[in-house]
Amino acid sequence: MVNRMVDKQGLSPSRGITPVQQMLASGTGALLTSLFVTPLDVVKIRLQAQKAPFYKGKCILYCNGLMDHLYVCENGTSCSSWYKTPTHFRGTVDAFVKITRYEGVRSLWSGLPPTLVMAVPATVIYFTCYDQLRDFLRYGMGYQGNQVPLVAGAFARLGAVTVISPLELIRTKMQSRQLSYRELGVCIQSSVAQGGWLSLWRGWGPTILRDVPFSALYWFNYELVKARLCKEYSVQEATFMMSFNAGAISGAIAAVMTLPFDVVKTRRQIELGEMETQKGK
Description:
The protein is mostly helical and about 280 residues long. Helices cover about 70% and strands about 5% of the residues.
């Protein structure tokens, strides 16, 4: 029995990697992803603002490559300091060139620092929990089927969203009402008194509606494609390019299959954000 347990532990793909190392790796990956993706989303939002200017109290979704965040427009069509009245953009490439030329390269990463405060911890929790849950199910409980990454991915995302959801609601309250930290404390106490502690998780439902199915499908397909590639090329450990291709394929499949959930989630999140804005008036 002991020998069998030792054998199982020896087969673990995470052998030699501690949870702390997993957290550091996921945190580093989160920062690199944000640095790469944020300029793309900034350009997308600026192009949207050009076609339909944002009005005061309007909420938009801002993505730094890790998670979606509600951004509340505060000053009419200018929306905020990084939503200056744009030069006319003819397209994506033109937007990159003109933003860089007239506003500086740093403008492409506008709005990134505040969102990283929540996005990096959420990503660290998510990936570390996934690795730990997957290995526990496989090597602690002996489950070896394809359902292991599906279950681990779903529960890991559920846990990350549950931890971060109150922080996202607090950030939205602060932004929409321009509250000091003391006023924010009073606001949270009032909200809890009226709706109970569950009121802090008001945005939890629409978030898990898309994120949990996406995560479950992503990890199920990722592990499946990676295993097939390893078998195809007769290797025991996946190379960087194998993992990269597996991630791209599984991400595309999960995105397509959860698109209806994403539409509902986006609309519901914006509705909740604008409700908070109306309360602050």
